[in-house]
């Protein structure tokens, strides 16, 4: 995937602790570059070098996500983005989305910023209600 390296570098330079990819599918290009990342998908998947867990973002096991500083997803549909935002508000995490074209959700409780790094273009939703978790 174009921009995988730049996206991973952004995540690693801004977030620490638990980082979770939502809906990894069969593309682990970014996940492989982030040590200790946990990836979820509604179906069981196996990707070399990535810890994967079967979970449904529409009915998430919140204990899996507690303590996460960032939830991110590559090309999620709008309804997944909204579910990520709902969960992120409850656990105090930020959300990062690399969308399919112009499928961009408005997530209540977050400020949204377009980030452009090399080949990577993605949206960062900063949780306005959570303690600051980013590296300073």
Give your account of this protein's structure.
The chain has 136 residues and is an alpha/beta fold. It has one domain (4-127): Vaccinia Virus protein VP39 (Rossmann fold, 3-Layer(aba) Sandwich). It has three helices and seven strands. It has a seven-stranded mixed β-sheet, sandwiched between helices. A hairpin with a 2-residue loop joins strand 6 (110-117) and strand 7.
Properties at a glance:
alpha/beta, Rossmann fold, seven-stranded mixed β-sheet, 136 residues
Largest sheet: 7 strands, mixed
- How many domains make up the coordinates? 1
Q: Could you tell me the CATH topology label.
A: Rossmann fold
CATH homologous superfamily label: Vaccinia Virus protein VP39
What is the rounded distance between the termini?
A: 29 Å
**Helix content estimate:** 10-25%
- How do the helices and strands follow one another from N- to C-terminus? HEEEHEHEEE
Summarize the entry for a quick read.
With 136 residues, the chain is α/β, with parallel strands linked by helices. 21% of the residues lie in helices and 30% in strands.
Topology:
Elements lengths: L3 H11 L3 E5 L15 E4 L9 E4 L7 H4 L2 E7 L3 H14 L2 E5 L11 E8 L2 E8 L9
Parallel strand pairs: 1-2, 1-4, 2-3, 4-5
Antiparallel strand pairs: 5-7, 6-7
């Amino acid at each position: 995937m174009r921009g995988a390296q730049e996206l991973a570098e952004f995540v690693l330079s801004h977030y620490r602790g638990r980082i979770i990819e939502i809906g990894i599918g069969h593309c682990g290009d970014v996940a492989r570059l982030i040590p200790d990342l946990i990836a979820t998908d509604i179906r069981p998947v196996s990707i070399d070098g990535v810890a994967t867990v079967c979970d449904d973002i529409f009915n998430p096991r919140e204990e899996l996500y507690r303590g996460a500083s960032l939830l991110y997803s590559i090309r999620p549909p709008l309804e997944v983005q909204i579910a990520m935002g709902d969960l992120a508000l409850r656990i105090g995490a930020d959300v990062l989305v690399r969308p399919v074209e112009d499928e961009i959700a408005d997530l209540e409780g977050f400020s949204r910023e377009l980030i452009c790094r090399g080949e990577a273009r993605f949206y960062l939703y900063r949780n306005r209600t959570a303690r600051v978790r980013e590296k300073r």
